[in-house]
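Table S2 (text version). Query chain:
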Amino acid sequence: MPNGIERRGFARYAVRAAAHFKWIDVNGTVRCGQGLTRDINSRGMFIYSEAQPMLATDIEVEVRFSTVSDSIKLIMKATGAVIRWEEPQDGIYYGFAVLNRDYSLQSDVIP
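Corresponding structure-token output:
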């Protein structure tokens, strides 16, 4: 961030939520992973995980948000591509950024 200026056009929200994702590796094998989001917005998200999808990989992500009430379930489903990843900071969890192509929010009331 040169001169302390934020270059992103969309606000990022520091949200820790469970993320489950899948992608197809170079051998055509479907891979699955899970992790935690670091931040999220309508254009994408950053996820910490032990799994490490390769750059430019198409990915499907499902993020489950905690709610105040156990009777409400809020889920974001997104498809996109991995655009950046970071080496593990603590030797365990990689971080990667996803650029969303599309997403949907779903909420259900659980009886």
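Notes on Table S2: The chain has a mean pLDDT of 87. Strands lie at 18-24, 30-41, 44-49, 58-65, 72-86, 94-109.
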